[in-house]
Each structure stands twice: as C-alpha cells, then as structure tokens.
TrEMBL record:
Protein name per its UniProtKB record: 8-amino-7-ketopelargonate synthase
General function of this protein: Catalyzes the decarboxylative condensation of pimeloyl-[acyl-carrier protein] and L-alanine to produce 8-amino-7-oxononanoate (AON), [acyl-carrier protein], and carbon dioxide.
Cofactor list: pyridoxal 5'-phosphate
Matches recorded under InterPro entries: Aminotrans_II_pyridoxalP_BS, Aminotransferase_I/II_large, AON_synthase_class-II, AONS_Archaea/Proteobacteria, PyrdxlP-dep_Trfase, PyrdxlP-dep_Trfase_major, PyrdxlP-dep_Trfase_small
Family: Belongs to the class-II pyridoxal-phosphate-dependent aminotransferase family. BioF subfamily.
Alphabetic keyword roster: Acyltransferase, Biotin biosynthesis, Pyridoxal phosphate, Transferase
Domain Aminotransferase class I/classII large: from-to ranges: 42-377
Modified residue annotations for N6-(pyridoxal phosphate)lysine: 240
Catalytic activity: 6-carboxyhexanoyl-[ACP] + L-alanine + H(+) = (8S)-8-amino-7-oxononanoate + holo-[ACP] + CO2
Enzyme Commission number: 2.3.1.47
GO molecular function: 8-amino-7-oxononanoate synthase activity; pyridoxal phosphate binding
Subunit field text: Homodimer.
Gene Ontology process terms (BP): biotin biosynthetic process
Length: 383
C-alpha cells in the first residue's frame, strides 16, 4: 500500500465531488430494451443505446446460447493464434455486404477499434484531423499515432477545408475522422461534403457510425443517406443497436488485410467471443427483416422533439442541454422521481457549460412513454 497514492486519489475525488463531476457506478438490471431496475425500483430508461431492444430479442439470445453451447464462452486466444472462430468471418462478410465494402474486421469493442485502426495508418509524419465533438476513442487512437492532431469545428466543412489547406501540405498522409451520428448531440455529419473535402486534399476518411448502424439508412447506417460520400474506413460498434458487444471496420480488402496483420488491438488481444458474433449475425437478420422496427427509434425521438419544439431529431438521440452539471443532475433526479431514467451527461464527456440530459429512444418505447417523458422534461426546457 502506498499512502501518497491513496491521498492523491482522495484529493482528486473530493475536487470532482465539489464540482458535481464525480461519477459513481449504480448496479442496474436491464430487464428488456426499455425497463431497468435500480435500487429496487423499476424505471423506464431513456439512457440505453439498445435502440432496437435487440439485447433481449429472443432470436438474438437464442443464437448466442447455441454458440455458447457449441463453442464455449470465450475464444481462447488472439484471432491470429486460435481465436478465429468461423463465426467471426461470417459476421465480417455480413457487415461488409451491408456497407457495400470488400471486407471487414471485427474487434473486441469500439474503443479498441478506433484506438487500433488509426495508428495502423497514421504515423508521426502525418496529420489527423478530427471533428471537435468526435468520440473519445477517436482521440485516443489519434494520440497513439504521434502525429499532430488538429480539431475542426463541429460539422463545419469550411473549417475542415481550412484545416486541410493549412496542414495537408506539411504532412506525408492525412486522416480525417468523424462520428456519423454524434453520440452526445444526435446530429449527423454531412458526410458527402466531408468526403469531397477529403478527396480534394487526398485525405483518408474514417467514419465512426456507432449510433447510425441499425437506425439510419434503413439500418445500413448514416453513409446510406449520403450515397455520394466515399468513406475509406466504415467503423461502427456491435454494442448499440446491434444489442451486444464488439465493433467492426469495413474497408477495401488490402486495408482490412493490413489491419488483421498489424493493428495492435487485433494482434495483441483475445478474439471476440463466438457468441457475440452469433448474436450480431442474428441481430443483422432482424434488422434486414424488420424495417418498421428499424424506423421506430427516430420516430419516437421526433415525437419528443415535435412535442417540445426542439430541433427535429436526426437520430435516436436527443440532447436537452441544461448548462451547468448541477442543473443536469437536478433534472435527472426530478425525472427519476417520476420513474424515468435519463442520466445527466457532464464534462468532460461534453464541453463545459453544456451538461445535458441525453435522451436515447428505443423502438420498444410506447408513444405514451415518450409523451410522459416530454411532460417531465417540459419544465426544464421552458417549453
Ligand atoms: C459507444 C461508442 C464507441 C465505443 O464503442 P464500445 O464498443 O462501447 O467501446 C465508439 N464510438 C462512438 C461514437 C460511440 O458512441
């Protein structure tokens, strides 16, 4: 035991607590796509990314159970050793077909995917240009490159062009990275214009579509809404609408081949458990067969934005920005008293002064549940 370590941790926690920025875990039992039990009480949750309720879908669960019985619970090694269960390749073929790409590679998680992919293609002589609101794991991957990292203003293509003009010439190679749907704001990146800016300056484009897959573009994701966009690296996760765990990137065959031989978060990590791949394949089956289910989360989100006079939802995510962390916590507590779970999102997950309720809608929310949420949120937005 090292007392200075403990003292350091305690001081840091006290400092965060004083700023309403301390976070704590709360054991939560999700009983289906929308209901959770916490502290003995049941809530209707608007804080799950399980947009289609597939984490509890009978067909998806059954596929995972069959795979556990056949292959066990773990993959046993890195994929490059003995962890490459054939289900992983089957899942990759499905994802590549869905994205219209040649090939795909699956990962243990989205965080692992972005922190591994970006440094595979970018080094210290290059440049990474990132939307300022892109997900934390894009920044983690960018940091690992050793390259200069340049932020462009959120969804501002003119600023992206300016940053490319300023930095591209000095760099050997350039990678631009953005979310397809922004996780804390719910808006879409203008992928067609971003892609044009990248082509004009020979910059590669990575799109993280964690929140688009299964929800936008008939389930194929955000890129389907921008048919002109040329995306070099289609990254996304299996942990949101797909309902399970894991991630993927779809790209050309040589790009995927290089990832499979060099990306550290593929080589030096255990393969995705076979049951996760089986569940994801079953989830893609459901997405392909049930267009009404796929359309429902955005319809629910729009019902709320329409009711409160907020800008129309572009995805299953609606931010209700409240300002200071304390106010977001008070709003979340108020909703919680009414049986509604909408977790307050605070800095550093979002910029200072933009603490918010991040509302996420599931196909399984009833219209009545959405209306109840709207009435509970109304006093906080003054609508
Ligand atoms: C959730 C998320 C990730 C991380 O995915 P995990 O599989 O949860 O690690 C990456 N990018 C975005 C945009 C996300 O929302």
């Amino acid at each position: 035991m090292n007392d200075t370590l403990t003292a350091f941790a305690q001081a840091k926690i006290d400092e965060l607590e004083a700023k309403s920025l301390r976070r704590t875990l709360k054991p939560t039992h999700r009983t289906d796509g929308v209901h959770v039990v916490r502290g003995g009480r049941e809530y209707v949750s608007f804080s799950c990314n399980d947009y289609l309720g597939l984490s509890h879908h009978p067909r998806v669960k059954a596929a995972a159970i069959v795979a556990v019985e056949a292959y066990g619970v773990g993959s046993g090694a890195s994929r490059l050793v003995t962890g490459d269960n054939p289900l992983l390749g089957q899942l990759e073929a499905r994802l590549a077909a869905l994205k219209g790409a040649d090939a795909a590679c699956v990962f243990g998680s989205g965080y692992l995917a972005n922190s591994g992919i970006i440094p595979t293609f970018v080094g210290p002589q290059d440049v990474v240009i990132v939307d300022e609101l892109a997900h934390a794991c894009i920044w983690a991957g960018a940091t690992l490159t050793g390259a200069p990292i340049v932020a462009f203003r959120h969804n501002d293509v003119a600023d992206l062009e300016a940053k490319l003009a300023e930095h591209r010439g000095k760099a050997r190679r350039a990678l631009v990275a953005t979310d397809g749907v922004f996780s804390m704001d719910g808006d879409m990146a203008p992928l067609d214009a971003i892609s044009r800016a990248c082509r004009a300056q020979d910059a590669w484009l990575l799109v993280d579509d964690a929140h688009g897959l299964g929800v936008l573009g008939g389930g194929a994701g955000t890129a389907r809404l921008f048919p002109e966009a040329q995306i070099d690296l289609h990254m996304g996760t299996l942990s949101k609408a797909i309902g399970g765990y894991g991630a993927y990137v779809c790209a050309s065959r040589p790009v995927v081949d290089l990832i499979k031989t060099r990306t550290r978060t593929v080589v030096y990590t255990t393969g995705l458990p076979p049951a996760n791949a089986a569940a994801a394949i079953a989830a893609l089956d459901v997405i392909e067969c049930e267009p009404e289910l796929v359309a429902a989360p955005v319809a629910r989100a729009r019902r709320l934005t329409g009711s409160l006079g907020l800008p129309e939802a572009q995805s299953a995510i609606v931010p209700v920005v409240l300002g200071e962390a304390e106010r977001a916590l008070e709003a979340a507590a108020d909703l919680e008293r009414q049986g509604l779970l909408a977790v307050a999102i605070r800095p550093p997950t979002v910029p200072a002064g933009t603490a918010r309720l991040r509302l996420a809608f599931c196909a399984l929310h009833s219209e009545d549940q959405v209306d109840q949420l709207a009435e509970a949120v109304r006093p906080w937005v003054g609508a």
